[in-house]
Design a protein that fits this description.
Elements lengths: L1 E3 L6 E5 L3 E8 L6 E9 L10 H17 L6 E6 L5 E7 L4 H15 L7 E10 L6 E9 H13 L3 E7 H9 L6 E7 L4 E7 L2 E8 L3 H12 L3 H11 L9 H28 L5 E5 L8 H9 L2 E4 L13 H7 L4 H8 L3
Parallel strand pairs: 2-5, 5-9, 10-13, 13-14
Antiparallel strand pairs: 1-9, 2-3, 3-4, 6-8, 7-8, 10-11, 11-12
């Protein structure tokens, strides 16, 4: 489900809060094959800045990354972070496709807390009752100012955007398989955490929290009297371990982790009440998923299977790249999903 969409290109560029990540794929009958990949760090807070000068700096970083990665096209797919997009699911009775489009616009006007003329709307049927034919429709609204900002950024980088979609859709494409009927993807990023419920390969619920790795580092720095560099090192070394460093890091970040767990439980309960079915598995991705003991912590608190998502699981690549790709697994799910394009 893209805000703009073309299926002719297989390059994905994910501009995150702390880094830019790039993947180029080539369709090869079955799974796509890896052509190129790479990443580049961003200066703190620059990706969120509205300053033209900062955006030019990001564009230059993207240009250098494209060149150093030997990308062979200027046409790219990219995403909007979930925190900038509003989404909701509505129920609609049986109707024609033309009436459905009108009904979606009307419901968007009623349910989206933004002026309808200020947003770009996309929608997708996520389920249909086989008996009543009632449809559950996900509506996504992206502020035009945000989409325009993305387009301008890539214009400055001398690239053409042919697909602009949400990060949750791209990540779901990379990590989920239809044979798993109801799963959750937890994308633990630098600035935010994205909760996505996927049913039969279709994104059916999205929730965003302003809690990410940066917030964890900040609280460790404040509570333990460390500078940011030391706090980051402590976070990634000790994480949620209760028996290392006397559990000091665990105790410090536990309230934020509990907030995430609470939102996971709310999302699962909401989905069960609205549509039925229990989430049986949670896939972790994003740089903060590297926290030591995070899987055991979530398993014990949620009583659900928790595993790491495999960003490269649907991609063919040379065996010699296995080690390097494993090192990048947590951060590349969005870029991979963007490069895979919509099925």
């Amino acid at each position: 489900m893209g805000i703009f969409y073309s299926n002719n290109d297989l390059v994905g560029i994910d501009v995150g809060a702390s880094a830019v990540r790039l993947v180029q794929l080539k369709k090869s009958g079955g799974n796509p094959s890896l052509v190129a990949f790479g990443s580049a760090q961003l200066p703190p807070n620059i990706a969120q800045s509205d300053s033209k000068l900062d955006q030019q700096k990001v564009a230059e970083i993207i240009k250098r990354l494209v060149k150093s990665s030997n990308v062979s096209t200027k046409f790219v797919n990219t995403s909007l972070p979930g925190s900038t997009v509003f989404s909701t699911i509505i129920a609609l009775p049986p109707m024609s496709q033309a009436d459905l489009a009108q009904a979606v616009r009307y419901q968007a006007e009623q349910n989206i807390p933004l002026k309808i003329d200020d947003v770009k709307i996309d929608w997708q049927i996520v389920r249909e009752n086989p008996i009543t034919k009632e449809k559950a429709v996900m509506i996504i609204a992206a502020p035009r100012a945000k989409t325009q900002k993305v387009m301008e950024l890539f214009e400055m980088a001398d690239l053409d955007v042919v697909c602009l979609e949400t990060s949750s859709i791209a990540i779901a494409r990379a990590l989920s398989v239809p044979s798993e009927p109801l799963i959750m993807v937890l994308n633990l990023g630098a600035s935010a955490t994205e909760i996505t419920i996927i049913e039969n390969g279709i994104v059916s619920h999205v929730r965003n929290l302003p809690i990410g790795g940066t917030a964890l580092t900040r609280v460790i720095s404040r509570e333990l009297g460390l500078d940011n560099t030391q706090a980051e090192q402590f976070k990634m070394r000790f994480g949620l371990s209760q028996d290392k460093l006397e559990g000091q890091v665990y105790k410090t970040i536990k309230p934020l982790i509990e907030n995430i767990i609470d939102e996971i439980q709310r999302s699962i309960k909401y989905y069960n009440n609205q549509f039925g079915g229990d989430v049986k598995k949670i896939l972790l991705t994003g740089g903060t998923a590297r926290l030591p003991e995070i899987i055991s912590c979530f398993k014990s608190e949620l009583n659900i299977e928790v595993v790491y998502g495999n960003a490269w699981g649907k991609i063919n690549f040379q065996p010699s790249l296995s080690e390097k790709l494993n090192e990048t697994n947590f951060e590349f799910a969005c870029a991979v999903g963007l490069a895979m394009g919509e099925a």
